[in-house]
Amino acid sequence: xxxxxxxxxxxxxxxxxxxxxxxxxxxxxxxxxxxxxxxxxxxxxxxxxxxxxxxxxxxxxxxxxxxxxxxxxxxxxxxxxxxxxxxxxxxxxxxxxxxxxxxxxxxxxxxxxxxxxxxxxxxxxxxxxxxxxxxxxxxxxxxxxxxxxxxxxxxxxxxxxxxxxxxxxxxxxxxxxxxxxxxxxxxxxxxxxxxxxxxxxxxxxxxxxxxxxxxxxxxxxxxxxxxxxxxxxxxxxxxxxxxxxxxxxxxxxxxxxxxxxxxxxxxxxxxxxxxxxxxxxxxxxxxxxxxxxxxxxxxxxxxxxxxxxxxxxxxxxxxxxxxxxxxxxxxxxxxxxxxxxxxxxxxxxxxxxxxxxxxxxxxxxxxxxxxxxxxxxxxxxxxxxxxxxxxxxxxxxxxxxxxxxxxxxxxxxxxxxxxxxxxxxxxxxxxxxxxxxxxxxxxxxxxxxxx
Length: 451
Hints:
The protein is mostly beta strands.
């Protein structure tokens, strides 16, 4: 009430010092509009404005003016706020400090109307989706279809993609082009993933089309300019409902190893792939537990591929596994909800038996969690290998070490102990369970060697 009275009195006292004007009172949804505030005075302090009528301000421009008419001087500033509303709204009064006094702009209402296109329009744009109701995490495929009359002299296009609160755009869009008669048609395919339950909108796509236009100046000379056409699509109403599982879609699971028989201390490289259409970004990294073994896992990678027919995502996680005796890589289980069948589906990879040649005595197992990686270590060999590349690297070091042993006199060998830290770790592993100091030293050596 206090502010309303102040606004009322300010309008009476300072109505001649400030003017408020909307570019358009009725606005096509999604199109650009502007509010111009003209302030008369010399010392003007502007407020900080980030929203107008609940809509984000997309641009602010200022212009100072100075007029002198019959000895009467008028000066001030014009401030233009740009915004693109999606719903009806109200521009509330804003306070400006002018020559040490507070003045207020007036309240202004604006009204939003739906974009309308005719089949005869030279430029047309619409967005479509397969359905209007989706599960949380389910893939939403949206197609933006732009049609352009090729007889028009188009020299520039400025496109704005569809978007929406509560949706995450997955991967890159794909563009397909075709020609039908005098029309060129672009089809742009997007995949979205809903992030929260409720009723949401995927907002309009927009295309500004610049057409060559010929005009004459005030002297009658012809010149070329650009006439802009603003084309705004419909928007899509989406209802998002809870899903019975966090992972939603349809998937297949695959595993493969680079070898089925290894020497003691040699790594088996396992690759896990999950391929399908769904929210693989919400899948947590898998862990593998193997008795009498060491498991190193890498950070998963997710890739997306969109075609004209479907959208495919691939989840890849790699592991390096070291066993000191025969063992089996256990099955990996994947559970997800299939929105097409309406059922919970469980798929499992196959167990993979690994034969270890040249077993040696084993040390007490160490279970350590470091930097998000679970390390189950029952290591007897001096070579603890993270991956295939490291295996080749250590083999190279071994060859170099052998050459050094043959080429350098025995009395000098102690200066070139390439694998001394790993030898220390090998000797220390059987003793780690005897004291916390031994365990601490083993961890420090392991960190220096493998990080």
